[in-house]
Structure formats: structure tokens, C-alpha cells
Specification:
Layout (H helix, E strand, L loop, with lengths): L1 H14 L6 E9 L8 E9 L3 E7 L3 E12 L2 E6 L3 E3 L4 E4 L5 E7 L8 E10 L4 E11 L12
Parallel strand pairs: 1-10
Antiparallel strand pairs: 1-2, 2-7, 2-8, 3-6, 3-9, 4-5, 4-8, 9-10
This protein binds copper (II) ion.
Copper (II) ion (CU) binds next to strand 8.
Length: about 150
């Protein structure tokens, strides 16, 4: 009988809808030149409930970090951050000059038109993590993009 109840409970747990629905739009990665080992990945994130972006990964990079840009003595510098807040219903844009996903230790050059898989992990207020995989398109160097003024 005990077993039967446990099984029924786990069934209920599995049928619950996923919390903090995450929408990822327009993911892209900046192309690289030969021997370039780092580049940025950008996208728009919208979570249905308060959450934060806590991690990213990609098979094309040895290391993936979340970065912010900040002024340091009149120079824009980037540095790793632990998380990017994603307030409920608000679209947060990762773009050049702002928060971005940094791909380091690239395993090969990224050509315009290539597709790069990105794994994005967000954490809800309850500490539950959700992982989403997206396919990012590689765009040419010099693409400022993101703000919607290209194309
Ligand atoms: Cu960076």
C-alpha cells in the first residue's frame, strides 16, 4: 500500500506544468576570425515568473561565463557575474555592450551562418533550475545587432 501511494504521488509531481516558463528569442553568436578564442552570445530572455539566468554552456567552448559590462576608470570592461535577474514578464536582452554570454576557449572558428547549440540554465525563486537548449545563429563580425536596428 505504501508503495502504491508513493507511485501515485510521483505521478502527480510529473504531471505538474513546468514552473517559470522561459522564452528565448533571437539567439546569436558573433563570428570569429582564425585563432580567436573568445566570442559573445546574445539573445532575449523572458521568464513568466521571477527567475535568474545562472549558467550557460555550449559544446563549441571549453568555458562559458555570464558577463556584464561596467565602467572602470572611464574604460568599459567586462567581468563575470553569478547571475542576471529575469523579472517576471520582462524581456531582458543580452547584447553587445551589456550582459552577454561569453564563450571562451573556442574549439574551432565560428563562421557566419553556422549554428551553435547553447544550453541556458535559469533558477526560479524556489531555487529550482530549468535548462533550455537553443540553436544560436552565427552572425558576421561587426554585427552590432541585438537592439533591433540591423536588418
Ligand atoms: Cu564577456
Amino acid at each position: 500500500m505504501k508503495h502504491y501511494i508513493a507511485a501515485a504521488l510521483s505521478l502527480i509531481a510529473f504531471s505538474l506544468p513546468a514552473q517559470a516558463d522561459l522564452k528565448i528569442e533571437d539567439p546569436w553568436v558573433r563570428a570569429t576570425v582564425p585563432h580567436q578564442k573568445v566570442t559573445g552570445a546574445f539573445m532575449r530572455l523572458t521568464a513568466s515568473a521571477d527567475a535568474k539566468l545562472v549558467a550557460a554552456g555550449s559544446p563549441v567552448a571549453g568555458i562559458v561565463e555570464i558577463h556584464e559590462m561596467a565602467m572602470e576608470k572611464d574604460v568599459m570592461k567586462m567581468r563575470p557575474v553569478a547571475a542576471v535577474p529575469l523579472p517576471a514578464g520582462q524581456t531582458v536582452e543580452l547584447k553587445p555592450g551589456a550582459h552577454h554570454v561569453m564563450l571562451l576557449d573556442l574549439r574551432k572558428p565560428l563562421q557566419p551562418g553556422d549554428t551553435v547549440p547553447l544550453v541556458i540554465t535559469v533558477e526560479g525563486r524556489d531555487g529550482k533550475r530549468e535548462t533550455l537548449e537553443v540553436k544560436a545563429t552565427v552572425r558576421p563580425l561587426g554585427t552590432m545587432g541585438g537592439a533591433g536596428h540591423e536588418r
